[in-house]
Design a protein that fits this description.
Elements lengths: L9 E2 L8 H6 L15 E6 L5 E6 L2 H16 L13 H12 L5 H19 L9 H11 L3 H20 L31 H10 L2 H14 L3 H5 L6 E2 L4 E4 L2 E5 L2 E5 L9 E4 L2 H14 L31 H16 L3 E4 L6 E4 L4 H12 L4 H8 L5 H7 L6 H9 L10
Antiparallel strand pairs: 1-2, 2-3, 4-5, 5-8, 6-7, 9-10
Helix pairs in contact: 4-6, 7-11, 8-10, 8-12, 12-14, 13-14
Length: 420
């Protein structure tokens, strides 16, 4: 082991000191002579990479304490360079996002980017990493970020972003976002705002749809329970006319407003085979006759080359079925025109949603399967869920007419069986 330097820490000569050594090095201007030097003490050390660093202190004891501490941290691999923590959060985001954007689904990446731009960057982008404190973050999260979901995503992104700074050569000694608490209350919706429309309400909505979209939504989506991105991305080679089934192998997603192909469904369970009713098969027959799709199987490539010639369901003019337009303009106009629409406001954020949503077709299909006694495992396989219990927990709702049956039973119109 190399011997330590005997002059570490060493005293730095000062222009304001009048000791003999300082006067010798800095003779001008003339100063009052003194016996003891008042210069600062410089502690020199090498970081884990072997680079020589230095720090000045007023007293020799402080410099020696610092040297003992920093040498121990280097040996134990807990050392962090304060200068590396002076990078601004915006600059650190660019380094982190360069790697993070290669992971996960497109929709997840876009959601992270939207939260960063809307909430985190405007407030914390110009802050150095080592100046961000836990209580400041918590105060901002509680006072300025509205809504449970927004607070939750801000906490998750900040925790991951600053944890990476801790792991990257100890830019900061600890993660100030690790102890953040989501203080907003999660908005609970009334059961009526979660369940799908009744059969009569769906008839009114379908009647208000343009005839072309009636074939897509009434005859296909309402018969299969497939997600909009799944039937928008359905290609002819995935349709088995003899077995009357379709195989879900890829989907269409929105990438910041631009449609692209995604090589996998929403979850791993999304890879599945869906049986078709005669009505759903009729919708495919209509589209095949109108658009004459080809049965080729093109590679996905960069995702934006959609190969419209293979798609079964398309927009009215033959382009890719725009899922943004479908769930926004087309569906919303139909539910408003039919008189079924209802505004549902989030009291925490003030944002307004519309009931019913296009995705409630899946809930309606699940409830119908449940009412007909289809086992959960079978419904799970058709709908594409990781576990069967979720089918009942999320998608199954009270049966149509359930309230009338309960009212009749409690009013004595129907005998109640006693249980001893």
């Amino acid at each position: 082991m190399a011997r330590r330097a005997t002059n570490n820490p060493r005293q730095i000569r000062s222009k304001s000191c009048g000791c003999a050594l300082c006067l010798e090095e800095y003779p001008e201007p003339k100063r009052r002579p003194r016996r003891d030097c008042i210069g600062s003490w410089q502690a020199r050390y090498r970081d884990p990479a072997g680079k020589q660093c230095a720090r000045n202190f007023q007293k020799k004891a402080e410099a020696e304490d610092f040297l003992d501490e920093v040498r121990t941290s280097v040996r134990r691999r807990t050392y962090h360079d304060p200068k590396r923590g002076q990078i601004k959060l915006r600059e650190w985001w660019e380094k982190w996002w360069e790697i993070r954007q290669k992971q996960g689904r497109v929709t997840t990446r876009n959601r992270i980017l939207a939260v960063w731009r809307a909430h985190i960057e405007p407030k914390w982008g110009d802050y150095p990493l080592n100046s961000i404190e836990t209580m400041d973050l918590q105060r901002w999260l509680t006072r300025e970020v509205k809504g449970y979901d927004s607070q939750k995503k801000c906490k998750e992104i900040l925790t991951a972003l600053l944890r990476a700074a801790v792991l990257d050569g100890k830019r900061i000694p600890e993660n100030p976002a690790a102890a953040l608490t989501v203080t907003a209350t999660r908005a609970q919706k009334h059961p009526d705002d979660l369940k799908p429309p009744t059969a009569a309400q769906y008839e009114l909505i379908h009647a208000a749809l343009p005839p072309y979209y009636q074939i897509i939504l009434r005859d296909f989506a309402n018969e299969t329970g497939m997600r909009p991105g799944e039937y928008a991305g359905l290609r002819l080679h995935c349709f088995d006319e003899e077995e009357m089934i379709v195989h879900i192998k890829e989907i269409i997603v929105s990438d910041r407003g631009r449609l692209r192909r995604q090589a996998a469904p929403k979850t791993s369970a999304g890879f599945r085979t869906v049986p078709l009713t005669p009505r759903a098969a009729g919708a495919i027959a209509f589209m095949r006759k109108k658009w004459k799709p080809v049965r080729s199987r093109s590679p996905i490539g960069d995702g934006f080359d959609l190969h419209v010639e293979e798609l079964i369901f398309r927009g009215p003019r033959g382009a890719v079925l725009n899922i943004n337009n479908l769930s926004g303009r087309v569906w919303r106009a139909a539910i408003i025109q039919s008189g079924v629409a209802r505004e549902v406001m989030d009291p925490e954020t003030g944002r307004t949603d519309w009931w019913p949503e296009l995705g409630l077709y899946r809930h309606d299909v699940t409830s119908r399967l449940h009412a007909h006694g289809v086992p959960e495992a079978d419904a799970q396989a058709v709908l594409g869920h990781d576990r069967g219990g979720r089918v009942t927990w999320v998608y199954t709702h009270e049966r149509e007419g359930a309230r009338e049956h309960v009212r009749a039973a409690l009013g004595g119109e129907r005998g109640l069986r006693s249980v001893s």
